[in-house]
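Researcher: Checking consistency across runs. Here is Antibiotic synthesis protein MbtH again:
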Amino acid sequence: MDDETTYQVLVNDEEQYSLWPADKEVPAGWRPDGKRGTRQECMDHVDEVWTDMRPRSLRERMAAE
């Protein structure tokens, strides 16, 4: 069964990423990052842009030490 859903990539304030069906309301605390497409296209985008899995607050705290 092929997934014909169009997805969008979401990002939160901690710069963590998630896929979300494009026809669903974006949940609180998340915002679209602009990428829409198939699940695989969105996963490829996330793999490209989310290179450091640590939350932003942890990266900032570690950089300050």
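Researcher: Does this match what you'd expect to see?
Model: One thing to look at in this run: The beta strands are 7-12, 17-21, 30-37.
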